[in-house]
Design goal:
The chain is an alpha+beta fold. The protein has ten helices and 14 strands.
Length: 451
Amino acid sequence: MMRRVWQHLQTRAIRTRLIGGATLVLITFVLAIGWAVQRAHADGVRTAHYAQLQSTVYLLLAGAEVDTNGNLVMPPSLTEPRLSLPGSGLYARVRNEVNGQTWQSASTVARTLPFLQEKVVGQWRYETRREQGHDYLVVGYGVRWVAGGGPVPLALSVVEDTVALERELAAFQQTLWAWLGGAGLLLLASQAALLQWGLAPLRRVAQELQQIEQGEQTEVEQAYPSEIAALTDNINTLIRQERDRQTRFKEALSYLAHSLKTPLSVLRSALEEPARLPATVAEQVARMDAIVQHQLGRAAAGGKARFIPFLALAPVLARIRDALAKVHADKNLEFTLDCPANLQWRIDEGDAFELFGNLMDNASKWANHRVAVQLHSEPHELRIQVDDDGPGFPDDTHAVLQLHVRGDEKVAGHGVGLAMVNDLVASHQGTLLLTRSGWGGARVVVALPAA
């Protein structure tokens, strides 16, 4: 039953689960404490009643006498008034084990009682017996009385009806469970109030997310406790990343539409000159292909992301180097890769291949003999440096980063590589620097901040 209740709670809201779980724990705790206290009190009260019966036995010993003939002599009355009142609930008996003489208190009139007959001298016996539908507490004690005629063994037994005991236990039980129940309800109310207060930030987050869905606000704006702040920061990061991604796609479509107007106009004009049509078509198709590749690459760039897994960079550089060595086999280039084997960075694999591939490919196109790539990580930044021994960049390095601008028209390519690198670096909130290498050629330095 408890298992089914627990499984049901696991599918409910957090507040319901917490209150339900706290209620189950509190009920279990209250029941266990109540049972333990009730059991301890019952044992204590029963022990106290046995002690009172033991005192009555001592009272009988104080009043009992054995004459010179070995006969039991008891006083006409005892200091315990209940022993003289019939049906009082307290009963006593003294038996002479030599001649069978028995004395019973006046309270035993017309009653059959479960007296003990303890024959072992100096031994106490405590029992609970049932007789004719009634429960009794019974105490027995054996004593050897020394008289003129010799020792006389006496068996003393006292019986008490459990009505008084049960009444006392019932009163305590009623008081105990009333207080425990009240305390439990007070604790539940306090727990509910604390949960209401403690879960208030989650409700505010839910309200803000609903407002974001409805377009009433752009991100989570309120300040939250540290336990929830990490969640809200990540939510805002995801929202910004998605917004940036949508912006890049919209811009890519806009740029694509705008950039294709000129090649289409050239093709339309070439229809009037059939002799130039094949060459014009080939040239403009290549140009449009480069434009499409650039804009698609720019739109698909993952950008800086907190949740992308770490990527080992050394294998990426090795794969790009092997591919470029085949592409530029006629130049017999010497590639130098300086990258720690354990260097990892949080970057999308596609972005990594696009970034390093374009940097190394651009260096390979311009290099005469050597290309060097160096990567190292700082506490909050990844530093990338690509050098070649070619002619280097022109004075106007800003123009090189624009689409379709090449340093030398004799070198194959569409002027797309460094422009895509510039966009990728910008999407990662990094910096790009074009300068001169130690060999006199070009050097590209990229710094990417940690996600």
